[in-house]
Amino acid sequence: MTAIPNHPAPATPADPARLAMPLGEAMFTQRAIRRFRPDPVPLADLRLCLEAAVRAPNGGNRQIGRFLVLTDRVVIREFGALYREAWWAKRLDERGWTRPEDIPPEEKTSRAAAGLADEMQDAPCIVLALAEPPGWANSVIPAAQNLMLAARALGIGSVPTTLHPKVMDRVYALLGIPKDVTFHFCIPLGYPRGSFGPNRRRPTAETTYLNRWNAPPPWA
Ligand SMILES: Cc1cc2nc3c(=O)[nH]c(=O)nc-3n(C[C@H](O)[C@H](O)[C@H](O)COP(=O)(O)O)c2cc1C
Hints:
The chain has one domain: 3-Layer(aba) Sandwich (NADH Oxidase). By secondary structure, it is of the alpha+beta class. Helix content is 37%, strand content 11%. Helix 1 packs across helix 5 (141-153), helix 2 (43-53) crosses helix 5 (141-153) and helix 3 packs antiparallel against helix 6 (165-175). The protein has a 4-stranded antiparallel β-sheet with strand order 1-2-4-3.
């Protein structure tokens, strides 16, 4: 196995028994972690998250998902600058915002996401979730969620994020990604500053129907 820069090669195979956190606890306490301690994530733990990721369902078991793991500080710093530019480009497109003062105080998720745009360059690790042709997103998204649940079980925080067309050529050039590979998610990983869940979601009685659109489930 090729060693990832700054990490020794792992001595032991990935051990799924290390993901022993009850599944319900992992799912119900997984929330967006956007602030990370600087401590590096051990390579063995990154590998275990990736071993969990690739076990996800995918179309025709063609396994088109590809995962580009960034741990090199210089690369992460350069990528972080592009991520920040992308985040603001998207906010300009969607909201007309160009600076932090433009974000309304009540838009807490956007304010936290703006903080991540600043801090991405300091993330201990970033995983890009990509796909070989035909590039289907729905063959990669289950893997990304497996990766983030495995991370949660190991006490590692994560959040799925996207980029913007404005920076894609430079991201691909920086990381040597072939043009026919499709980008789906950028997932920073690290030990949280702050805590995991519980997360807040709409009641399932509002988002679930039984047998027919708009027919409420029995627990509504
Ligand atoms: C398709 C998608 C795109 C997202 N993009 C971003 C993003 O660009 N920046 C960010 O900080 N979070 C991003 N998120 C994370 C969401 O904001 C987060 O999952 C949501 O607000 C719920 O957060 P919670 O689990 O902490 O309650 C994205 C999530 C998804 C699924």
